Structure formats: C-alpha cells, structure tokens
Amino acid sequence: MTESPPWCLALAGPTASGKTAAALALAQQLPLEIISVDSALVYCGMDIGTAKPSREERAAVPHHLIDIRDPLQSYNAAEFARDATQLVDAINARGRLALFVGGTMLYFKALVDGLHDMPGRDADIRAAIDQQAAAEGWPAVHAELARVDPVTAARLAPLDSQRIQRALEVQRLTGRPLSAWHADHKPGASASRFAAMPMLSLEPAQRHWLHERIAQRLDAMIEHGFMDEVRALRARGDLHLDLPSMRCVGYRQAWEALDSGAPLSEWRERSIIATRQLAKRQLTWLRSMPARQVFACDDDTVLAQILAAGKALAGKP
C-alpha cells in the first residue's frame, strides 16, 4: 500500500532572517505545530545565544525538538530525521500541519534526500587528525582538506573541527573525498515521503541588510545577559570547546574571550564575523535547493507574502 504524503511545510533561511516571526504569523492563520530545524536549539540552558523562541512564543504554538539534549550530549542529522518523521505523523494525526522552521541545512537535507550510506568511524584516524590539529591548528587541517576535497572545504569554516575531522576521516579511510560520496548518493525510499515538501525560503536581496540584523541581534543578546549564560555553562565544569554544543556560533567566541580576557568589543567583532560566515554557508546550501520559493526577507511586505504562500500551500495532501 502506498504511504500517503505527510502534511508539512518548510520555512528556511539564514540566521537572523526573520524565520521565527514568519512562523508565528503563519501559526495565527493555520492549525500548525512547529518542528525546529536548528542544531543549537536542541540544547537546554542555551537560550539567549541561540535566539530560542520565548516561553510566551512556545506557549502560543506547540514547538518540537527544542531543549531535548543537555549540552554535554550530541544530536545529529540521523536522529533529527528519525525524530522529525515521527513528529510529523503525530502532528498530522492531530489534524494539524507540521511546519519545519530553521536554518540547519544538513537536517533539511537528511529529511528530504535521506541519509548517505557513509563509511563508519575509525578511532585511529580520528586520533591522528586530533594530534595534527593540536600541533598545527584546525585552519592548517582545513587547508589540507582543501587540497584533497576542495568542494567540502569550501562549505566548512576553518574552525569547524567536527566536520573537518569527519571529511578527512572519510577521505583517508576510503581514498575518496566526502563530496564524491555525497554526489553519488541517491535518495532512498525513506526520503520519498518528504521529497515534495514545499519550502519557503527567506533570503536577503541586499546582503548588508542581513549583516545589520546579525549585529543588532548580537547586541540584544549581550544586553539580555549572553555572557552570563556562557559563564554559567563554563561553571558547570563538565563542558569544553570540543563539544558540538560549545562550538555553536557565539558560544565558542564568548568562551574563548573568557579564556583570554579579551575585551567585549573584540569578542563582539569575532562573533559577528563568524555569524556572517554561517549565514553565507546557509545561503549556499539554500541555493542548491532549486524547488524552494524565495522571499526577500528585507522586503517590508515579506510577512504578507509568506502568509499568502503558506495558506496557498497548506491544503491537505
């Protein structure tokens, strides 16, 4: 028997593009529940620096996949695809639309395209890469990745240690670059349920508008106690910068500033630069998804446009 397609809609975009406001506006017009597509929002106690929806916003409409992990734990794309699939079925069973909202593009890809049949992990290779990074620094390891797999290196930041390590691990283990494995991947049957999911994408017509938003949002985070939040995380004693949670943009820079005693102005500038780089990578991912509908997030009428498109696409399959 053919499985019926899920009743769902995606709202994607780079950081600071206005996804939360657009999602809440849609929730006022449609019977929906929100599934977060954000690798930082899964962590408890990381509220200010992740721009986590407020308690009031989460009370107004059900949100899922927020505060489901301690910062000491990890959460990956495979877990997201599994959890999201189960959530969509439950939300649909309640007669409601599942609205995916976020900017972690690897999660979207795992859901829509399915997961790669990738080689497993190799402890010896990973240890060797860690030793190399300790001696030379992650930017040097990133430079090596750029030589053997320029496609993957181009979408990774020089300090994205987890993904750089995995890409080099795959290349050393198999002799093939990670990008070649991705190119050879064919969507599996499990991905076919979400292959036709409509996606609304908030993207700036003018890049400087997004840059200003990023700076304004960081200043608001600082005003609301972001550094105190990072101090509280450090005070636990069991967290460190090698954890995925502490590698989140802003948190890493704040942690390093506390380690070095750097002034707030220096940390602020480094955080803004890192967040701009994240937004650039998110936009690159989005442009590889040709079926998305693009809306200029710097257009004054964008919310009205999103509402019209969302209501038009929300008819039950």
Report on the architecture of this protein.
The protein has 317 residues and is an alpha/beta fold. It has helices at 19-29, 55-60, 77-93, 105-113, 123-136, 138-148, 150-154, 161-174, 178-184, 207-223, 226-235, 251-260, 264-287, 302-313; strands at residues 8-12, 32-37, 63-64, 97-102, 199-203, 293-296. It has 14 helices and six strands. β2 (32-37), α2 and β3 form a beta-alpha-beta unit. The model has no long low-confidence stretch (mean pLDDT 91).
**Which residues form runs of ≥5 with pLDDT under 50?**
none
**Number of helices in the DSSP assignment:** 14
Q: How would you spell out the order of helices and strands? A: EHEHEHEHHHHHHEHHHHEH
Q: Overall pLDDT, averaged? A: 91
Largest sheet: 6 strands, parallel
Tell me the structural class: alpha/beta
Strand tally is 6
Please give the radius of gyration in angstroms: 20 Å
State the distance separating the first and last CA atoms: 17 Å
Name the descriptors:
alpha/beta; 6 strands; about 325 residues; six-stranded parallel sheet; about 55% helix; 14 helices
